[in-house]
Design brief:
479 residues; alpha/beta; 11 helices; disordered C terminus
């Protein structure tokens, strides 16, 4: 008789850790004798909070930065500072520090486009108007420079923004650069704005830090909140950035087209370039969800073309096996391999970033050179698809629309409660308030050592020329 199977020995473990609550700036930190009011949600005819405890949040409501621990005493990961951080939970407070009748709110969008921008704007307007009774809400056009460039702010109301969530782009217009601290803060004072909602990426958040610091220095009764926006999903601490999921969904269309083109040719390669300057999240997630991609190149890891384990060798094996291949590359991958002129080495965009060269066009050229050199008498086709701006210039999908709504309302609740210099965002699925300075410095690269990617690679595809996932510097996702 076979012995009954038994599981691993059970052991009762316990642990304790002291969580460090991250300090959240508040207007009362530098302003005295601030008046407080009862939250108008108590009297809102369309929104009646339940009498039970828990609707209004208190300073003791927190969200943990890390919820996964290794209980082994030998683990050094548990000593990392981030494992002991917690943040104030986002949501309405019983007392507010702004009289809605005296609020003049300004909303500005900066940097590149992202699905969901108009949803955030819409929900800021509707939330301020319907939840708190604010009637003076303005849109600042053309990014940071819109504060001082001479144009008049646009008065906003729920009727005007009613259908904005169904549109891509930003109805307020946007631009890169144009940050002039003194001019911006002077304009805020001159126009009497006392709530500033800044929607943008990491560069925009660094600007928000400077605006907050200058307002603090001048001791102005002005709240500043940043709403993190990056289609690349490269902002750290928060679970993800709004618009990212929509962009991944849209990228499927390009990958599907590349797969059809590759399958329909003799020795066909479908090459798709996706957004991702410093991180490969869009390329990675689009690759994993499509199930049709053979190789994905991301900025987080180097790759090479020639020799053992190189891209050419891998693709040759794949073409011999399947007759076609699909290759996805993030725009920031392989930039150090592309020849640059002296002028190109110095070229910068409006935000001061190095202008990236077209890695997709370069790869297409290199692939053709390789094939016609090594296989001059065989047919070969490369179809290059670049949907870069198509995937970000669309309206948000249902999931991102909900996310944008929660972000906007979290921002409103926080600033009305007197908090300033913060960013709302989900941490482990729970919305929290994070100091904007932390967010402006936090990065979110693809963790190529994450076991989740290894599992999907090893289970989902047969591997040709696969290298071990751990401890290899030159590594790309191969399927």
């Amino acid at each position: 008789m076979a012995a009954a199977a038994t599981g691993p020995p059970q052991q009762s473990l316990s642990f304790s850790t002291v969580q460090q609550l991250q300090s959240l700036p508040h207007l009362s930190d530098y302003l005295e004798n601030l008046k407080t009011l009862t939250n108008p949600l108590d009297h809102n005819q369309f929104f009646h909070p339940p009498d039970a405890d828990g609707f209004y949040l208190t300073p003791s409501d927190v969200v943990l930065r890390q919820i996964v621990y290794d209980l082994s005493s030998s683990s050094s990961d548990n000593t990392a500072p981030s494992h002991h951080q917690s943040y104030h939970r986002a949501g309405p407070r019983k007392q507010i520090f702004f009289d809605p009748d005296h609020v003049r709110a300004a909303i500005v969008t900066c940097g590149g486009l992202c699905p969901g921008l108009n949803t955030v704007i819409r929900e800021l307007v509707v939330g301020l108007w319907d939840l708190y009774g604010v009637r003076e809400i303005f849109g600042v056009k053309s990014g940071y420079r819109g504060f001082y460039s001479g144009g008049e702010p646009v008065p906003l109301n729920p009727k005007l923004v009613h259908n904005w969530h169904k549109r891509g782009g930003t109805a307020l217009e946007t631009s890169r650069g144009g940050f002039d601290l003194d001019k911006i803060v002077n304009a805020i004072q001159h126009r009497g704005f006392n709530q500033i909602y800044i929607i943008g990426g990491d560069g925009t958040m660094r600007g928000a830090v400077k605006i907050f610091d200058e307002i603090h220095r001048r001791k102005l009764n002005v709240g500043v909140v940043g709403i993190p926006k990056t289609v690349d999903n490269d902002i750290g601490i928060i679970d993800k950035s709004f618009g990212f999921q929509t962009a991944v969904e849209m990228a499927q269309q390009a990958i599907n087209a590349a797969h059809v083109e590759a399958e329909s040719a003799v020795n066909g390669i479908g090459l798709v370039k996706l957004m991702g300057r410093s991180t490969g999240h869009i390329a990675l997630h689009a690759t994993l969800s499509s199930r049709d991609v053979d190789c994905c190149l991301v900025p987080e890891n180097d790759f090479y073309l020639e020799g053992k384990g190189g891209l050419f060798e891998f693709l040759e094996h794949r073409l011999k096996q399947n007759g076609h291949a699909v290759l996805v590359v993030a725009e920031g991958a392989g930039q150090d391999m592309i020849p640059r002129t002296d002028a190109q080495k110095e070229e910068r965009d409006e935000s001061g970033n190095l202008v990236f060269l077209d890695v997709g066009g370069w790869l297409k050229s290199e692939l053709k050179k390789w094939w016609y050199r090594d296989h001059p008498d065989e047919l070969f086709t490369v179809k290059y698809i670049d949907p870069t701006y198509m995937i970000r210039a669309v309206h948000a999908n249902a999931t991102d629309n909900i996310y944008c709504t929660l972000l906007a309302h979290s921002a409103i609740h926080g600033i009305m409660a007197g908090y300033t210099g913060f960013v709302p965002g989900p941490i482990n699925g729970n919305y929290a308030y994070i100091p904007v300075e932390e967010v402006s410095q936090a990065k979110n690269p693809v963790n190529t050592r994450d076991h989740r990617w290894a599992w999907r690679i090893l289970v989902g595809w047969r591997i040709l020329g696969y290298r071990p996932l751990y401890g290899v510097k030159r590594w790309a996702f191969r399927y």
